[in-house]
Automatic annotation (TrEMBL):
Beta-lactamase-related domain boundaries: 55-411
PANTHER family per record: BETA-LACTAMASE FAMILY PROTEIN (AFU_ORTHOLOGUE AFUA_5G07500) (PTHR43283:SF3), BETA-LACTAMASE-RELATED (PTHR43283)
MF annotations from Gene Ontology: hydrolase activity
UniProt xrefs under Pfam families: Beta-lactamase
Protein name stated in the entry: Serine hydrolase
The entry's keywords: Hydrolase
Matching InterPro entries: Beta-lactam-related, Beta-lactam/transpept-like, Diverse_Enzym_Activities
Length: 434
C-alpha cells in the first residue's frame, strides 16, 4: 500500500501531488467516507491540522520507546477523515512497516457488530430483545446460579429471572468468562476465556453445552463481562438460518464495503496481519510465540475455521471499522445503504443499566458503554458518547455531540502500564478548534 506513515502537507508541489494521489486512492477504498489527509480538511471541519500532528508525534513515541510496535488510527469529523495514520512496525522482526491497511485482531470490538445483527433481526420481526433467551435457544431455561455459602464454596439456586436478549446485550445475563464461583466447572467444560478460534465445533454447539453450567449472578441484577455476546451470536445463527460469518458478510460487511473484515484471514491477506506483542519484564516488547490461545498469535490464518465468536472473533482494519461506526453516527445509514433505523441506533446508544453499577460516569447500552457524566468520568469527551475496545489494546468511540468517530488499533497483550489511550483522547479533543 502506498500510504504508510506521516504524509504531511509541507507546501511543496511534490507533497501536494502525493497527498492528492493518496486521497484519491483512499477514497476508492472507503467510498462512503470523504477521505483527505491535508490539514486544510481538518480546518474545514473545525479541527487543527497542526494540533493533530502533535497527537501523531506523541503516539509515535510509544513505538520509538518500544512500548508498542506500532498503531493505526483514524479520526473522522462531520463524516470526513481528518487523520488516518500508520506508525511504527506491523512486524518488527521481519521489518514490515505498519500500513493503514494492516489487519488487526479486534477481539471485543466484534461485540458491537453482533449487537447490531440482533437489532437487524428485531427490525425484521424475527425476534424481540425483551423475550427470554430460551425462546430461541431452549436449553437456556431453568438456569442455576452459583451462590457463596458459609464454607467458602457455593450452592446452586434457581435463577430469579429468565435471561432475556436485552440482558445479553447489556452484559447483565449473569455469566462471566467462566471465572466466577463455579470456575472449576467451567474449566472442566473447556469454557473459559474469550478465545474461540481453536474450537472445532460450530459456535451453536458450544453455546448449547455452556447452558448446563451455573451462572455467576441472577440475570438482570449485575453487570458482568462475559459470554453474553457469544450467546447472541448463536441466536443470530438460529434465527437467521445462516452462520454468523455469512450473516455478517451478507447483511453488514457487503453493504458497508467492509471488505477487509473477516473471522478468519483469506490467504491473500496473510501478509497484512499485524503481529501481537507482549511487554518484557526488563522493558521493551517482544512478539508472542506462534502458539495457540488467548495470549498468542492465534489461529486466525491456519486453524479449524469452524467457530465464529460473536464476542471476540473478528479481524479488521481501522478504515473498515470506521465505516461501521460512521453508519451508527448517521443513524443507521451509510452511503445510501440503510442497515437499521435511526430509532434502533438511539436505543442501542442509550444507557439501559438504571441502578446497576458499572463505571463512574458511564452506563451501558446495547453493545456499547455510554458516557452519562463526563465530569464524574473525568476524561475529555461528551455525554452520549458510546465506545468499547478489544483485548489486544484497541479502542474506539463515537461522540455524537462533536460528530466525531475515532478508531485506534494496536496489538499488545497484556497492555501493562500503557497510557496511549488517554494520550489519543487528549490529543484528539485538543485539536477541536471550532
Amino acid at each position: 500500500m502506498p500510504y504508510t506513515h506521516h504524509l504531511r502537507n509541507n507546501g511543496s508541489a511534490l507533497a501536494l501531488f502525493v497527498l492528492g494521489a493518496v486521497s484519491a486512492f483512499l477514497s476508492s477504498t472507503l467510498p462512503s467516507i470523504a477521505l483527505a489527509d491535508s490539514p486544510i480538511v481538518a480546518e474545514r471541519v473545525g479541527m487543527s491540522g497542526e494540533r493533530l500532528a502533535l497527537l501523531d508525534n506523541n503516539l509515535e513515541r510509544y513505538n520509538e520507546d518500544s512500548r508498542l510496535a506500532g498503531q493505526v488510527y483514524i479520526v473522522l469529523r462531520h463524516g470526513e477523515v481528518v487523520a488516518h495514520e500508520a506508525n511504527g512496525m506491523q512486524d518488527v522482526a521481519r521489518g514490515v512497516a505498519m500500513n493503514t491497511d494492516s489487519i488487526f485482531r479486534i477481539a471485543s470490538q466484534t461485540k458491537a457488530i453482533t449487537s447490531l445483527a440482533i437489532m437487524m433481526l428485531q427490525e425484521r420481526g424475527l425476534l424481540d430483545i425483551n423475550q427470554p433467551l430460551s425462546k430461541y435457544l431452549p436449553e437456556w431455561s431453568n438456569m442455576q446460579v452459583a451462590v457463596s455459602d458459609d464454607s467458602g464454596g457455593y450452592t446452586l439456586q434457581p435463577a430469579r429471572n429468565e435471561i432475556t436478549l436485552r440482558h445479553l446485550l447489556t452484559h447483565t445475563g449473569g455469566m462471566s468468562y467462566g471465572t466466577g464461583r463455579s470456575a472449576a466447572e467451567w474449566q472442566r467444560a473447556n469454557m473459559q476465556g474469550w478465545y474461540f478460534a481453536d474450537r472445532e465445533e460450530p459456535v451453536r454447539e458450544t453455546i448449547a453445552r455452556m447452558a448446563a453450567l451455573p451462572l455467576d449472578a441472577h440475570p438482570g441484577e449485575n453487570w458482568i463481562y462475559g459470554y453474553n455476546t457469544d450467546i447472541l451470536g448463536a441466536v443470530v445463527e438460529v434465527v437467521s438460518g445462516e452462520t454468523l460469518a455469512d450473516f455478517f458478510a451478507n447483511n453488514i460487511f457487503a453493504p458497508l464495503g467492509m471488505n477487509d473484515t473477516h473471522f478468519y484471514l483469506p490467504a491473500a491477506k496473510r501478509d497484512r496481519l499485524a503481529t501481537v506483542y507482549r511487554p518484557k519484564q526488563e522493558g521493551g516488547i517482544e512478539a508472542i510465540p506462534e502458539t495457540n490461545g488467548m495470549q498468542s498469535q492465534g489461529l486466525y490464518a491456519d486453524g479449524p475455521r469452524q467457530s465464529f465468536s460473536g464476542g471476540a472473533g473478528l479481524l479488521s482494519t481501522a478504515g473498515d471499522y470506521a465505516k461501521f461506526l460512521q453508519m451508527t453516527l448517521n443513524g443507521g445509514e451509510l452511503n445510501g445503504e440503510r442497515l437499521v433505523s435511526r430509532k434502533t441506533i438511539e436505543l442501542m446508544t442509550t444507557d439501559h443499566l438504571g441502578t446497576i453499577e458499572f463505571r463512574p460516569g458511564q452506563g451501558f447500552g446495547l453493545g456499547f458503554s455510554i458516557a452519562t457524566d463526563v465530569g464524574l468520568r473525568g476524561t475529555l469527551g461528551s455525554e452520549g458518547e458510546y465506545a468499547w475496545g478489544g483485548a489486544y489494546h484497541s479502542t474506539y468511540w463515537v461522540d455524537p455531540v462533536e460528530d466525531l468517530v475515532v478508531v485506534y488499533l494496536t496489538q499488545i497483550i497484556p497492555a501493562t502500564g500503557l497510557d496511549d489511550h488517554i494520550t489519543l483522547r487528549n490529543g484528539i479533543y485538543q485539536a477541536i478548534v471550532d
